[in-house]
Amino acid sequence: MAGGVGSGVVLDDQRVRPSEKIWRLIFSHWYIADPNIPNSPRMLQEQAFSGDVSIVRVLPHMTEQFVDSVYSGKFKGCGILELNADDVRKAGLVFEYDHDPEWRQDTHFVLRRVGGTVQQPQLQKKLNSTQKAELVRLGCAQPLRREPP
Question: What is the rounded average pLDDT for all residues in the chain?
Fold first, then answer.
């Protein structure tokens, strides 16, 4: 749980439960081979964790078919990286709920890092390079649930 010791501030949304599976949708330009190495395998790129990093909780209704239908098919065929919420929290990140009417209630969240001071913790939108590298490491430790085209 984030927040300074004794601050009484909880910045991590506890709707994302410990050990819960979450999905990060992966566009094809975030999953590419090294152009300098012939026949190299495609790998997850750090750009997949730049800017607002949204995730979806894998609730009973969350299927690949549901993901493919959101925003009139915007994510159809996107890769799916499945992560464990505990691993994401161990990387120093917290979950912020992001109400989006295209996704069902309590499904869509954004990863944030905690900045500020112990007395005044604040959510920061941009992940730092260490956090991005850890998410890439976690993502490369197992095959994607679904690879992008």
Answer: 90
Mean pLDDT of 91-105: 93
Which residue range is the domain that position 31 belongs to? 21-140
In a domain, 8, yes or no: no
Q: Residue 120 falls within a domain, yes or no?
A: yes
| Calpha distance 88→10 (Å, rounded) | 17
Query: Domain for residue 147, yes or no?
Result: no
Across 21-26, average pLDDT:
98
Nearest to 148 by CA among 23, 21, 25: 25
Neighbours of 16 (CB within 10 A): 20
Decide if 118 is inside a domain: yes
For the chain, where are the alpha helices, taking DSSP H only? 64-69, 85-90, 129-140
